[in-house]
């Protein structure tokens, strides 16, 4: 039921070593770069003597945390291709919107390199994984390529140019819709007041027919928060 009402998405289990890389300080993902001629090859006057320093001045470098790229990068690239060439990534909880600056101001990803760079630079993603680490053993990697049993996934959604004014957050108690609010709480959108009745009607109808009928989220089910998007034709999507 939800598949017909949501943007096309592919789910990828995150290996524990990849999660450890995302949480580690001091390392930033960079794609492989072909080796070029050294400074010495180009006639530089640098020599090993110039690099000699007193041991007392040396600082211990942080440990470089890596991950098995072959276990997840090809899976990401294949998913991107199936989803039309560009995607929006997120984990179970947050998206890395706060790091969109690293890709020129957008969270639009066209390669596995884009996804990893965006996740790595996001404080939101780091916070989520830090919170999870308090309740799960993230040090035990599953060498079969699984997620180690700790339940974090990467969701890649087909890229769509969404209008922030059309995103809404729905709150339910025991499966019953009790409140709706703007997703973007920092901006006032004057036209929403004019469309308020139509929006409330569309979202409530969607909840009753789609969400409310689900075995988990429906009436008598769990209390939760669900984000929805209402397009220009007032059709609601999860």
What does this protein look like?
Helix content is about 25%, strand content about 15%. By secondary structure, it is of the alpha+beta class. It is globular. The termini are close together. The model is unreliable at about 35-55 and about 140-150 (pLDDT under 50).
The total count of helices amounts to 5
Residue share in β-strands: 15-25%
Q: What is the average of the pLDDT values?
A: 79
Question: What is the structural class?
Answer: alpha+beta
Helix content: 25-40%
For the largest sheet, list the strands in their spatial order.
5-4-6-7
Shape: globular
User: H/E element string?
Assistant: EHHEHHEEEHEE
Task: Describe the secondary-structure layout.
Layout: E1 9-13, H1 16-23, H2 73-82, E2 87-90, H3 112-121, H4 123-133, E3 153-158, E4 167-173, E5 176-182, H5 191-211, E6 224-230, E7 236-237
Antiparallel strand pairs: 1-3, 2-3, 4-5, 4-6, 6-7
């Amino acid at each position: 039921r939800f598949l017909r009402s949501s943007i096309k998405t592919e789910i990828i289990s995150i290996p524990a070593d990849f999660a450890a890389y995302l949480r580690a300080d001091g390392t930033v993902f960079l794609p492989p770069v072909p080796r070029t001629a050294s400074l010495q090859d180009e006639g530089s006057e640098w020599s090993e003597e110039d690099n000699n320093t007193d041991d007392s001045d040396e600082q211990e470098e942080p440990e470089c945390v890596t991950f098995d790229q072959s276990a997840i990068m090809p899976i990401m690239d294949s998913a991107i291709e199936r989803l039309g060439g560009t995607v929006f990534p997120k984990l179970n909880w947050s998206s890395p919107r706060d790091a969109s600056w690293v890709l020129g101001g957008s969270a639009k990803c066209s390669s596995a390199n884009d996804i990893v760079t965006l996740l790595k630079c996001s404080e939101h993603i780091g916070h989520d994984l830090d919170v999870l680490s308090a309740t799960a053993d993230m040090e035990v990697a599953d060498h079969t390529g699984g997620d180690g049993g700790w339940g974090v996934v990467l969701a890649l959604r087909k890229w769509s140019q969404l209008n922030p004014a059309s995103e809404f957050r729905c709150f339910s108690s025991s499966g019953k819709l009790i409140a709706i609010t703007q997703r973007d709480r920092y901006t006032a959108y004057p036209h929403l007041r004019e469309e308020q009745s139509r929006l409330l009607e569309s979202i409530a109808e969607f909840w009753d027919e789609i969400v409310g009928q689900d075995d988990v989220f429906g009436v008598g089910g769990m209390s939760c928060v669900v984000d929805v998007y209402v397009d220009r034709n007032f059709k609601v999507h999860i």
